[in-house]
User: What shape does this take?
Amino acid sequence: MRKSILNTIYSSIMMLAVLLVSLLFNACENNDSGGGKITISKVYLEDVNSSVPDREVSFGRLGQLLRIEGSGFTGLKRVYINGYSTYFNPVFVSDNSMLINISANTPVIDADPSVRNTIRMVNDNDEEIYSFEIRSAAPDITSISNTLPNVGETITVYGTGLTEVNKVVFPGNVEVTSGITYDKNGTYFTVTMPAGVSTNGGSLFVQSANGGAYSPAYFNFKKGVILDFDGMGTHGFWGTSTSMIKDTDLQSTVIGTGNISHGKYVPHRPSRIASFAAATNRCSEVWTAGNGVDDWRGQLTPYIPASTPLDQVALQFDIYVPTAWKDSGFLKICLANNFNGGEWTGAVYNYVPWIAADGTVKEFQATSWTTVTIPLNKIYAYSKAAFTFETVLAYREAATYKNFGFYFENSDIKLSNVTGATTETVYASKATSVSVYTDNWRIVSLKKPTYSDF
Assistant: This one.
C-alpha cells in the first residue's frame, strides 16, 4: 500500500516536471530573442524642416532619417541598405516601427546591382528584402562654364550629385534630352546650347538619377548686359592717355575654341602696347559711358530688386586668355571712376585668377571663352557686413563719374590681400606681355528657385 502511494506520488511529480518543461519550452519558443518573421510595409522620411515632417516616401537620400513600418522588428540584428551594414539604435526599435539614418558611406552608383535600391532586415530566424530607391545627396549646381554661349556650343555644368543626367530645361522651357554626357562621380555634365532659349534668362533645370536641381538664375540673362561692345551698353573713352582703351583698340577677329567670341571684345593689353612694366598700376583702363547714359536702377531692378541681398547679385564677364597667365598682373573692377590704381579697399575688387584660394600660384589659361562670376559682396567695401543691391545702386548714383570699368594693374601683390590669411608673403610684380580679353559684362542674379522632390 505504501509502495503504491509512493509510485503515485512519483508519477505525479514526473508528470508535473514534464508539464513544467513543456511550458518553459513553449515560453522560450514564444520569446525567442532570435526574432520571428519580418515584414516591411511602408517607409517614411523624418524631416523636421518640412511642412510634412513624417512623409511616406519611395526613395531616400544619403544622410536622411527614415522611419520604417512593418512587423517582427523585435530581435532585429542587422539592417543592410544597398548592401551596406547600417547602424541603428535599438532604443528606437519597436516590433512595428524603427528609426534609421542612411549612412553617408552607403554606396549608390557603385552598389552591387543585386542589392542596389534595397533595404534588407535580418534576425536569427528570418530576413526581409524591401525594394526602396536610394539616392545620393540632392544634386547641386555650383557653376556653368559659359552662361552666355552661342547656339550650338557646348557648355559644362559643374556641381555635386549630377549623376545620370537625362534632361536639361533651358530658360523659355526649352528641353534637351539627348547629347548629354556626364561624369560618373556626378561632378559635371556637358550639354549643347539649343536654339530658342529666352533672352530674359533664368535658371537651368536638371533632372538626374539623384533628382532635380536648379542653377542660379543667370543663364542667358541678356537683360543684365551693361557692356558688350556691340551695341548693348555704351563704351566710354576720353583724353589722350596711353592707358585709355578706345573704340579703335577693340578687336573682332573670331577667337576661342569651343566657345568663341561674340563680335567685338576688349583686349586689356591693346596691340599698341608691347608689355606692361613691373610695379605699375592703371596700365590700361576700359569704361562704360557713365553719366547720363548708364542706368543700372532702370535697367536691372525690374529683374533684380534693389532689396536683393548683395551676396545674391553678381558681376559676370566672359574671359579669354590664350596663353598661361602667371606670376604678375590682375584686373581691377571699379564700381565707379573714382580710383587711381593700386587700391585693395573701397568699391573695387581685384581679380587675380592665378592665385588659388589656398595661396598657391597656379597658371590660369582660358582658350575657350569662360564666364567669371564675382558676387558683389566680394567688393571690398561690402565684404565685411550684409548689404543689399540698393547699396551699390546708391553708391553709383552718388558718384561724380558714374563710369563702370576695369583696370589692368601690374603691381606687387600681398597674399593677405587676396586670401585674407595672415601672411607676409608678397608676390613681386614682373614685366608682362600676357594677353587678357573680356566681353559681355553683365549684372546677374544668383538666386535659385526652390526645388522639392515631393
Notes: The radius of gyration is 33 Å. The longest helix spans residues 2-30. Helices lie at 2-30, 296-300, 389-398, 415-419.
